[in-house]
Amino acid sequence: MKRLMYSGTGLLVLLLAFVAFNMASNVLLPGARLDLTEQKLFTISDGTREILTELEEPITLYFFFSDRASKDMVILRNYARRVEELLQEYERVADGKIKLQIIDPQPFSEAEDRAAEFGLQAIPLPQSGEQLYFGLAGTNPVAEREVIPFFSLEQEGLLEYELSRLITSLSQAEKPQIGLLSGLPMSGGTNPMTGQASAPWVALEQVRQLFSIQNLEHDMDQVPEDVDVLLLVHPKAMTETALNAVDQFVLRGGKLLAFIDPLAESDQSREAMMEGMADGKSSDLSPLLKNWGVDFNPERVVLDARLGMSVGRGEGQLPARHIGWLEVEPEQLNNEDTVTAPLSLVTVATAGALKQVEGAQTTFTPLLSSTANSALVASSAFSGMEDPEVLLDGFQADDQIYHFAARIQGPATSAYPGGLEGIEPGVQSADNINVMVVADTDLLTDRMWVQVQDFFGQRVPQPWADNGGLLINALDNLSGSEALISVRSRGNFSRPFTVVEDLQRAAERRYRASEQRLQRQLAETEQQLAQLQQGQDPTQMLEMTAEQEQAVQRFLDEKLQIRKQLRDVRFQLNADIERLGTWLKVINIALVPALLTLGVLIWWVVARIRRRRSV
């Protein structure tokens, strides 16, 4: 038997057995697979299973992929196979409620006409001149349509969410109604600073995919009855009548999601420009927040030296640490709330702080928080700021944890118990309100979480943070639909270089400490020079004494020495990163193959010893 195994016939038998095993597994276990990724990126989520198993009406999915036109595009074909396999898994889990049709739209065929009728994006191939289709269309029994025009490779991380979102939209008789009142140009328009047209914010475009939006006015006297969730974004121009309408909406059981801000950097209104860079850009919901047991100071911004973002300062300059723009990591996210638990990273810019009023009857549940290495500063500190690292000068953490977002629930009373002039008193109290407040509006802007690319006329968003997920999850939660929350932001296909980031932060701390020491020594030397000049004849002010010359020379020597230290720190940063890269190369190129070779040799030696003993 052993001779047979080592012979050519034995190898042929093993090859045939391997082929037979693969053929049998493809027939008997077509959907079987093993997901070894850390975050189970290729396993259908519980939220998707819930959506599929609760389908009441059948849905037809048409998957269009130009198989012949893409014969030389290996990467795209592999991605198309993964999309097709995931769609087949959807069909299997839905148990007859989803019918999948896979279509190859040949040129000048009825299938190509149908793809164009659905509005799918055709990509021209320059070499062959053919049109490449790679999209999905879905219909329900009442002839409603939802389309994914083109599956972009950059969007693979959101593939399951996009598919589940499409099916959810088709399965809903009516989309939840969102009443939107915004003081920011979320719908696009003309930028007053540049005079150029701007596109709608990606966050708003994503909301439109799942919800119906009613735009409300800042002087409304009541919230429409068909509004399920009221969304306020930078409501700085709301009249007292509108505040009373919001108060009554919440007390009647309406759900509220409010984004307020001590310094909305995206506020480019004329009023904000006339009042200054910081003044005039704040928004609040006073007196409603106080009445709901929440304290918010619209003139104070949170700084956090631990969560500060690294931002560019232009070509040829080192990045700066901006401790007013923060990366809120999983440790600072509430992992027990369904809105924030699935998220990995949320970025905020010049955000404010929310805290519970002492003795409040409502329940205050933090959702996004700072670290203890933080402090509050006046929003005016950002007026005319050119270098964000000036925020580090004299920064002293107060060991307090500040909350950027919170959920407020519990009993509440009206902020206008006597009504308003011309408006009769309304509901006076409620046993339980359902409100979510976020003390930042800039997190909704594209620059804080997503990069948008133009793909043959189609806007393709590539999110690098979960800000959009926070908004959608909150609206899903408040509108009563939570299945999509567990689907979104399930994982990231890219893994950050956390060790390199830690090295950069440590070196920047050393660099900043040295820079501050230089500034202190400069101030001390200037003070010493001023003391030496006291009592000197004014006619001889231009002449320097020997003591003054020694002090200046000592300062110049110290300055040169510290500059050398700063260069050494920056060099050491690069050296640490290069050393880490060298070790990774050694491990991947030499160590791993060496270990495998050693393992094979040990196996061969052990097998040889056993054969000798058996003889």
Automatic annotation (TrEMBL):
Q: What Pfam families does the annotation carry?
A: ABC_transp_aux, DUF7088
Coiled coil ranges (UniProt) are 504-535
Q: Which InterPro entries match?
A: ABC_transp_unknown (IPR019196), DUF7088 (IPR055396)
Protein's name in the database: ABC transporter
Give the source species. Halopseudomonas laoshanensis
**Record's superkingdom?**
Bacteria
List residues of the DUF7088 domain.
Answer: 38-138
The ABC-type uncharacterised transport system domain extends over 175-474
What keywords sit in the KW lines?
A: Coiled coil, Membrane, Transmembrane, Transmembrane helix
Lineage, uppermost ranks: Bacteria, Pseudomonadati, Pseudomonadota, Gammaproteobacteria, Pseudomonadales
Which residue spans traverse the membrane? 583-606
